[in-house]
Amino acid sequence: MSTNLKINPERLWSTLMETAQYGATPKGGVRRLTLSDEDKMVRDWFKTTCEAAGLAVSVDAIGNMFATRPGTDPSAPAIAFGSHLDTQPAGGKFDGILGVLAGLEAMRTLNEAGYETTHPLTLVNWTNEEGARFAPAMMCSGVYAGDLDMATMLAGTDRDGKSFGEELERIGYKGPETVGERRFKAFVELHIEQGPILEAEEKTIGVVTGGQGIVWLDGVITGRDSHAGTTPMPMRRDAMNALAEVALAIEAVALEFGPAGVGTLGEALVLPGSRNTIPGTTTFKADFRHPDAEALTAMEAAFTARCREIADGRKVEIDVTRIWRKDPIAFNSTIVEAVEAAAAANALPARRMISGAGHDAFYISGTCPTGMIFVPCWEGVSHNEEESATEADCGAGAQVLLDALLRLDANPPS
Q1: Burial class (CB in 10 A: 0-12, 13-18, 19+), 225
Q2: Cα angle 398, 404, 409; round to 5
Q3: CA–CA separation, 242 vs 229, rounded Å?
Q4: DSSP strand E in 157-238: where?
Q5: What 3-state class would DSSP assign to 320?
Q6: What CDD domains does this protein's entry cite (predicted)?
Q7: DSSP 348
Q8: N vs C: which end of the chain shows fewer Cβ within 10 Å?
């Protein structure tokens, strides 16, 4: 299947730079936390811009946004695509929003050509993919899919004690649509790779075949606050030194299950936070990932066992709680093949690959046939203000997205 429809890479790049103003940081990145004022700004822009393109915009009760272009068969379920508009606290211009704006560019291209699809096409902004302000990540695609409880998510709070539900209403994006009410024929998500493989191998397109599993663990280490000058070293119950061992244990477990397994201590708090007081309490947040579900389970077990050993040796208590787990997933073969064919039709070098990062597509894959497209980012850097991608690669990704959507419209997955 082939069409002569070509997206406008300059227009796509212009919208990427325009939207980067919403939450722009002095270092050239973006800080657009979920349900913040900056999130409201970019949502307002998205709604207005989609409506100007003739799309019907609706919002569900947890803030997911849907912009739909009708098809010739009103009874056909929509083919959906998109990603997210929120960022990390010190994020970049491309993570998530590329997939949304590339979808908008695809819609504009179809409009300009007067091209009619059989299926309706729906562009989606999933709320709170990052999980940076409100845990967990991929929250509202998870609620949409029925994997996360909506009431629990709405009640969740940020560090300032503000609840997700209150902030959703504050910015005006608690919509009337029932969450999960609409269902799709297929879903495709374009995203920067957030890793170094495509750039290193000089490939333009990553054909994503699935994603690795993720488990998030929260820990509390309890020792005893003591005077730094009067407490002999052997008599200390130092929660900070125990935390140092925990950090190394995370690394050791990941290496044990390597090269596929990875582990990260991404956040820690030391209390009471005084130079001359031995810390009596520390907290930490750990992230383990592996493409095999059994190996992921074994990684968690190995880490908790190591924590027990550290607790005994340091005379502290270590409590570890799993707050979230998402098992590895495999994407739909028809969509994988459509993406691969679209890359080949545009003479773009491509490779199949597993996603190391979590994405909304992971949850959506439980509701309909799903796939993903990756494009390179500079040195694989993401979740960082230096995150960067080229205009050519962003345009190539959008072109493959459009072509893949048209292939799926003609030959939808079963």
Answers
A1: middle
A2: 130
A3: 19
A4: 184-192, 205-211, 213-222, 226-227
A5: strand
A6: M20_bAS
A7: -
A8: C
- Dump strand ranges (E) for 248-294: 262-271, 277-278, 281-290
With CA atoms as reference, report the closest residue to 144 among 186, 183, 95.
Answer: 183
List binding-site positions: 84, 95, 130, 191, 383
- Contacts of residue 213, defined as CB under 8 A and 6 or more positions apart, other chains included, come to 289, 290, 291, 292, 293, 296, 325, 326, 327, 328
CA distance 40 to 127: 11
State the pLDDT at residue 237: 99
Residue pair 326/214 in contact (Cβ under 8 Å)? The answer is yes
Q: Which helix (H) or strand (E) holds 65?
A: strand 65-69
DSSP annotation of 24: B
Q: What is the mean pLDDT of residues 358-386?
A: 97
Q: In what order do the strands lie in the sheet with 317-326?
A: 262-271, 281-290, 213-222, 317-326
Of 309, 330, 328, 308, nearest to 319 (Cα)?
308
CB 394 within 8 A of CB 346: no
- Are 228 and 278 spatial neighbours (Cβ–Cβ below 8 Å)? yes
In the chain the domains, ranked by start, together with CATH numbers, are 9-212+329-410 (3.40.630.10), 213-326 (3.30.70.360)
| Residue stretches of the annotated binding site for Zn(2+) | 84, 95, 130, 191, 383
Q: How far is CA 382 from CA 119, 191, 194, 294, 355, in A?
A: 34, 11, 5, 28, 14
- Looking up tokens 């005379």 gives 315
Two tokens at 168?
């959703």
Residue reference for tokens 């997933």: 329
Which amino acid is residue 36, in one-letter code? S
Q: What is the mean pLDDT of residues 244-252?
A: 99
Tens digits of residue pLDDT in 378-403 = 999 999 999 999 999 999 999 999 99
